[in-house]
Design goal:
Layout lengths: L2 E5 L14 E5 L4 H10 L4 E4 L3 H9 L3 E6 L2 E2 L21 E5 L3 H7 L5 E5 L4 H11 L3 E5 L8 H13 L5 E2 L2 H13 L3 H4 L4 H8 L4 H6 L9 E4 L2 E4 H5 L2
Helix pairs in contact: 4-5, 5-6
The structure holds (2R)-3-sulfolactic acid (3SL).
(2R)-3-sulfolactic acid (3SL) binds next to loops.
């Protein structure tokens, strides 16, 4: 039986061997939720980059850009990191270059995996279906916050492990802990996260609607997958 493991911070990724595995990178609040939303609304490709400089260079090359630091839209770029800004018809068919505080960097750090997916509560059912069909060991890479553990990405890891529990074995206690937390949180995920650091950070910036939106399960059936330097929707990656 394949296994499912959880890496609680990109800072711990050096302890994991991603070769031959599927990495599901998650930044529930908000990077991977925004990516899923963007694909569901017609964006063609997303190039995740780690730094503002890389994003700026690609802006000068003519790309649409999105940049966030510390929860705020970074100056000089087209979009920030609210999923609601990706519901606009003007993004259809475009390639977006995106940098966020943690999420895009976590994707870049996961490239050693056989496949790198962007997971969120919004597309968790399709992510579970895809990894079950692949049948390879899975590592959920939690983007966390500047190297720290966070609760919302952990809950996603637990939720994914719960969905896969009949066909994937927990790799170790990391997975069991995430599952326990998700079972505790499930009746009221928003309430469970009320005192969590990033929820408080976003609420201090008056960003509450985004949180409620990002905690919804199974809204979209798109799975962004890394193909070279770009995330593309799974159906398009398969056609390559
Ligand atoms: O850390 C990240 O990558 C972002 O998703 C953080 S925020 O939700 O935009 O503040």
């Amino acid at each position: 039986m394949p296994s499912i493991d959880v890496c609680y911070s990109p800072e711990l990724l050096h302890l994991y061997n991603l070769k031959g595995k599927v990495a599901v990178v998650v930044d529930v609040l908000r990077a991977t939720s925004s990516m899923v939303t963007a694909f569901a609304h017609g964006i063609e490709k997303i190039i995740p980059v780690s730094t503002l400089d890389d994003c700026q260079n690609l802006k000068q090359a003519g790309f649409l850009t999105a940049a966030e630091r510390d929860g705020r839209k970074a100056e000089g770029f087209d979009l920030g990191n609210s999923p609601f800004s990706y519901m606009d018809a003007s993004i259809q068919g475009k390639t977006l270059v995106m940098t966020t505080t943690n999420g895009t960097h976590a994707i870049r750090l996961s490239v050693a995996a056989d496949k790198v997916l962007a997971g969120a509560f919004l597309n968790i059912g399709k992510v579970a279906e895809f990894v079950a069909a692949e049948g390879k060991d899975v590592v959920v890479v939690c983007a966390g916050w500047k190297g720290d553990f966070n609760l919302e990405d952990t809950l996603f890891a637990g939720a994914l492990a719960e969905r896969l529990k009949d066909s994937f074995a927990p790799a170790n206690d990391s997975t069991l802990a995430a599952q326990h937390l998700y079972r505790l949180a499930k009746p009221d995920v928003m309430g469970f996260l009320a005192n969590s650091s990033h929820v408080k950070r976003l609420q201090n910036l008056n960003i509450t609607d985004d949180i409620i939106y990002c905690l919804q399960e199974d809204v979209y059936d798109v799975v962004p997958v890394l193909a070279g330097d770009c995330l593309v929707p799974l159906n398009k990656a398969a056609a390559k």
